[in-house]
Amino acid sequence: MGQAGCKGLYQSLFDYKTEKYVIAKSKKVGLLYRLLQVSILTYLVVWVFLVKKCYQDMDTSLQSNIITKVKGVTFTNTSELGERLWDVADYVIPPQGENVFFVITNLVVTPNQRQETCAESENIPDALCYEDSDCPPGEPVVAGNGVRTGRCLRSGSEQKGTCEIFAWCPVETKSRPAKPLLGKAEDFTVYIKNFIRFPKFNFSKTNVLDTTDRAFLKSCKFGPKDPYCPIFRLGSVVSWTGSSFQEIAVQGGVIGIQIEWDCDLDRAPSECYPRYYFNRLDNRFSENSPSSGYNFRFAKYYRDAAGVELRTLFKAYGIRFDVMVNGKAGKFNIIPTVINVGSGVALMGVGSFFCDLVLIYFIKKSHFYRDKKYEEVRDLEVLARMAESSQQSVAPDAAGLAEQPEVQDGGSAQKENGCVCRQLLQPARSGHQGNGKVNVEQLRNLQTVEA
């Protein structure tokens, strides 16, 4: 048995096994199968290759540089500053131009401050006091403007006052103006120059249109009629976010300018151009909310005729612009093409699997197709047990039992390709039709010869 088993295993190494296909003449299942094939093929061609361009090798490691320049002038006349002309050096921070720049639109000005003692602002809760002991000397006022001197200053006969502090006096007390100081800043323009490079393909590009017309940048404005001009009007940028410039100019805000590059390098380089998107990034709270808007403070220092250092404090409200760049570039490559084609072909097998489930489980004649698809093969031991159970189920009749023929040549059963031969099956039938019984010993002899 061992040698025979090894020999059979050795011979099976050179066997070729192929699948057996069953053709089901069902129009419903056939139509379903074709629809699944068409759907998978459409997904592969339209979505995978045309939309997602999965036949390309992609580079998302974008290298970018941004230069911004704001232009525009305006005139104001206020009690704190008098008549003043505002240009780029006055209202743009930082002045050198980066991917983030701030344009001042509203101001609270506190001029001529000097370092001396004065009363803290009444708007500071930590500065309120009733007696001098409430103002321990040397301790700073929390969220205030200076350091306590130890005195509590009261106005007239009022019991409550504020602590005296050493600070830049007078302290800031004015509130934010309801009307923006630089409301005409919506007509200012910003020039955004963007350089990009995809290192994998050694491809570089800029968002400035390659033209020989020297007057192009002096006359163009970005918009639907001129989408390749890199000069943007500030009022238009804010309106494209769904906000009003005059409203956001009062308390400030943050605007995002996104530059999106999607380059198909299988085409000409001139067809690689940017797309611009504009969004408001700060949360829009109510007008009186302390979290609304965007502001910060800065000061300008100088000395008077006596050499005393003075300063003018500015609380600046305005619009912060964040320029963000991202993108990708793709170029044909055989490796992702083969991978995605192979994935699509493998996906076709899902249609066959689904149709098999419908065919053998969900239609009316499922049992018929199931019997045709799957063959049930039994060995001789199973047949012997079936014969024994059949013998026990038939009531024995000793007077009328028919003598069963003996198997004269055990080798003849072996010639029937390892299956139960007619000499074995015929007695079994006669045992059911007449009053004979199945010769179980004959089956056992046949198994011995087969082994």
Task: Give the SSE map.
Layout: H1 2-12, H2 27-51, E1 56-59, E2 63-71, E3 74-78, E4 82-86, H3 88-91, E5 92-93, E6 100-119, E7 128-129, E8 147-153, E9 161-169, E10 189-198, E11 203-206, H4 216-219, E12 231-233, H5 234-240, H6 245-251, E13 253-264, E14 274-280, E15 295-303, E16 309-332, H7 334-362, H8 366-373, H9 380-393, H10 410-414, H11 422-433, H12 440-450
Parallel strand pairs: 13-16
Antiparallel strand pairs: 1-16, 2-10, 3-4, 5-6, 6-9, 6-16, 7-9, 8-9, 10-11, 10-12, 13-14, 15-16
Helix pairs in contact: 2-7, 7-8, 9-12
Subunit structure: Functional P2XRs are organized as homomeric and heteromeric trimers. Homotrimer. Forms heterotrimer with P2RX1.
Protein name: P2X purinoceptor
Transmembrane segments: 31-50, 341-363
Structure description:
The protein is of the alpha+beta class and 451 residues long. Strand 8 and strand 9 form a beta hairpin. 30% of the residues lie in helices and 29% in strands. It has helices spanning 2-12, 27-51, 88-91, 216-219, 234-240, 245-251, 334-362, 366-373, 380-393, 410-414, 422-433, 440-450; strands spanning 56-59, 63-71, 74-78, 82-86, 92-93, 100-119, 128-129, 147-153, 161-169, 189-198, 203-206, 231-233, 253-264, 274-280, 295-303, 309-332. The chain has 12 helices and 16 strands. The longest helix is centred in the last third of the chain and has 29 residues, at 334-362. Strands 1, 5, 6, 7, 8, 9, 13, 14, 15 and 16 form a 10-stranded mixed beta sheet that branches. Strands 2, 10, 11 and 12 form a 4-stranded antiparallel beta sheet that branches. A two-stranded antiparallel ribbon has the order 3-4. It folds into 3 domains: 24-54 and 333-373, Helix Hairpins, CATH 1.10.287; 63-120 and 171-330, Sandwich (atp-gated p2x4 ion channel fold); 386-450, no CATH class. It catalyses: Ca(2+)(in) = Ca(2+)(out); Na(+)(in) = Na(+)(out). It comes from Physeter macrocephalus (Sperm whale).
